[in-house]
Amino acid sequence: MKRKKIWRIVRIAMLYGLALAIVLLAVGYFYQSAGNRNDRSVFKPVGKLVDVFGGKMHVYSGGEGDATVVLSAGWGTVNPYVDFYPLIEKLAGRTRYAVVDNFGYGYSDVTDRKRDIDLIVEEMREGLNQAGQKPPYIMVGHSLASLESIRFAQKYPDEVKGIVLIDGGSPEYYAAHRPLTFISHAQRFLVRFGIARALYHFDGFEESLASDRNGLKLLPEKLKEMDRVSSLLIANNKNITDEMRQSRNNAKKVIEGTKPLAVPLIAMTAGSFGKATTDWLNSQKELPLWSKEGKQILVDDANHYIHLYRPDLVAEAILSLEPTNNP
């Protein structure tokens, strides 16, 4: 009899707990929806929106030069313009550049097209063309964008003059690792039900979102706000999630393509202030092998987002591949 009474109390507590959780999630959902309406009023493109395969793609460009430096952000980086801002400052006045927001990122639309690597590079190429950018291109890819940078050179070899990978994973590395889609789903849950929005009110949360992006604290307040708004509006949408889901297959497709490439490739590896893992460092050694003229640069005083910590070194590597800077 006593056991039945205890079980009855436990069931009642569980029901009340479930009811409370549902109420809190509902409140959080409406809190997030209201915040989204306010955020969208200030979420304005900083570059040009162009028509690409039925959707709007955002391209931010500037500068002059014989080649266009194409900047591709890593997986989950919600606002490529903000992410590359320190690097853009170093490139401005020295070369022509274009920051491409792939579908699902930044100010671009979310598309129904699968995040297959060949579709991604096809969209990038069309977006650059529609934005008035012409080859030759120097492809600069951060993290997972190493795949699209290499694949672009495989598919359009006559349009690429060089590649710079910013702590980019090797195709072999991505082909050997299971896609971490659960991270994307968990983060989207926190955003959708207002939990992430509420956490932004706590000091230190913004900097702790990703330890590798602590370089964001060096940015002007206006850009930090742009990053916050972008995170709460588009983080881990279906395109970003599918890109991670397809990463293994995309890497295998790159591996099946041309190797070594006929264009120079510079692989910049973050030493993470002496804390980089051995597995990652070993995989980085494979990247120069993807080019007949490949080399690696180890940047000790930077984490994964090297372009936030040492944009000067990244700009120097890029400009070394500019036709006008070479005899």
From TrEMBL:
Keywords: Hydrolase, Membrane, Transmembrane, Transmembrane helix
Gene3D superfamilies found in the cross-reference section: alpha/beta hydrolase
Every AB hydrolase-1 domain range: 71-177
Transmembrane stretches, start-end: 12-31
Molecular function in Gene Ontology: hydrolase activity
Highest taxon of source: Bacteria
Annotated InterPro entries: AB_hydrolase_1, AB_hydrolase_fold, AB_hydrolase_sf
Name recorded for this polypeptide: Alpha/beta fold hydrolase
